[in-house]
Amino acid sequence: MNKYDVVVIGGGPAGYVAAIRCAQLGLKTACVESWQTPAGKGALGGTCLNVGCIPSKALLDSSHHFSFLGKQAAEHGIQVDNATIDVKKMMARKDKIVKALTGGVASLFKKHNIDWLQGHGHLSGEKQVHITPNDGSDKQTVEADQIIIATGSVPAGIGQAEVDNSGPIVDSTGALALAEVPAKLGVIGAGVIGLELGSVWKRLGAEVVVLEAQDSFLPGVDAQIAAEAHKSLKKQGLDIRLGAQVSATKKNRNGVRVSYQDSDGEQTLDVDKLIVAVGRRPNTDSLGAEAIGLKLDQSGFIQVDDHCRTNVSGIWAIGDVVRGPMLAHKAMDEGVAVAERIAGQTAHMDYDTIPWVIYTWPEIAWVGRTEEALKQDGIDYKSGTFPFMASGRARGMGDTEGLVKVLADAGNDTILGVHIFGPSASELIAEAVTAMSFDASSEDIARTIHAHPTLSEALHEAALAVDQRTLHL
């Protein structure tokens, strides 16, 4: 039986980063990963690199370019007549990007002498992992002083719309591999995944209807930002129907008929394809948790303490299988922190400064508290906003929708939250995260010189606005 200092179960962002950091710290490390490509080859990177973050952003980028040619290029003096999209070629580009990045992780494993054990791993003892190889060869068991569980998450489903991914009802994985642009596309769920995938296919020419069971749009987002985003997405042509509870679906020769209930009663919607995007759930079903007494909560999440320790000595859990947001960057940082704790170092995770991003266009990004949360908790605050319409760089780009919002403590001016709806919000939010990590005040950002002309000046001006002294509005 092979013996390791650390065995990581799962090769997604949490797992592969944890394995790399463990190896960097001199620990003999193995990573168990069962992912296989459609061609039957093993791949690292988990959902994020294979059928999540990376391929979705590749398609978002391709669809954004196509939409620009048809709707904005003429304003720049660029004349493009009858632009068409080759979906097969677009998908091939996406697949090439995925292959390069997953191959890159495999190369990093070789560089750091990490053993990649290809197959499904489950716990067979407090210090043992049982592996069923992908290639059908004999099962094996490895032993480790420490085990890190990083098995990620899988798409959640609903009984009213059974996913098959080979027919008209697909989940996020199937939505990233459609062979053609559907004439009419239905999406169940107006969350991050539903809005991003709906945006891709809307830009490429599909009529898109999004059915959201909740009465409010993006309830976790600052209400002012969510309202601006809702208005923009509707203007782009996304038909977002709130308070629409799906009751049944029926496949037919033309696609799917969706039955749903809203404030006007029972409704039906006929679509060519239907994406079920109702969130994700922890991937712990076949982990073997019960056999060793590993505690899970009612939703299937592994219970951990503030340092990601489970109730079983020597076993840790990170990423989507534990509490907190299901975000790749949160998972990666937990992987680093746990590796360092195993090596005897002191590690820190600041869960209050984890950034969130929704990759629509304009993008939505935020960190910290929303205005509604501050009001609910009775925290006295100040607010400053600045619209991209007043940004010289945004005007030059032709992307003037949206705003930056800074929330600061009314007493000591500490930044409590930053919310952005606008171009490149995913990049701009990093400055806010850095500032909040150092307990900066809005005055600190206001006194920081920002290059001109840049989009980052909008954050600078929003910080100035907290003290009612914007310069360009």
Describe this structure in words.
It comes from Methylohalomonas lacus. Its EC number is 1.8.1.4. Keywords: Cytoplasm, Disulfide bond, FAD, Flavoprotein, NAD, Nucleotide-binding, Oxidoreductase, Redox-active center. One of its GO terms (cellular component) is cytoplasm. This protein is 32% helix and 26% strand. The protein is α/β, with parallel strands linked by helices. The strands form 5 sheets. The chain has a 5-stranded mixed β-barrel. The protein has a 5-stranded parallel beta sheet with strand order 7-14-8-9-10. Strands 17-18-21-20-19 form a 5-stranded antiparallel beta sheet, with helices on both faces. The model has no long low-confidence stretch (mean pLDDT 97).
Features:
single chain, 473 residues, alpha/beta, FAD/NAD(P)-binding domain, Enolase-like, domain 1, 3 domains, five-stranded mixed barrel, five-stranded parallel sheet, 14 helices, 21 strands, 26% strand
Compact description:
The chain is an alpha/beta fold.
Oligomer: single chain
Strand content: 25-35%
First CA to last CA: what distance?
Answer: 69 Å
CATH superfamily of the largest domain: FAD/NAD(P)-binding domain
By DSSP (H or I, 4+ residues per run), the number of helices equals 14
Residue share in helices?
25-40%
Please state how the strands of the largest beta sheet are arranged side by side: 1-2-3-4-5
Question: Taking all residues together, what is the mean pLDDT?
Answer: 97
What is the CATH level 1 assignment of the largest domain?
Alpha Beta
Low-confidence stretches: none
Structural class: alpha/beta
Number of strands: 21
Q: How many structurally independent domains?
A: 3
CATH architecture classification name of the largest domain: 3-Layer(bba) Sandwich
What would the principal axes of the Cα set say about the shape? globular
Radius of gyration: 24 Å
Task: Write the CATH fold name of the largest domain.
Answer: FAD/NAD(P)-binding domain
Largest sheet descriptor: 5 strands, mixed, barrel
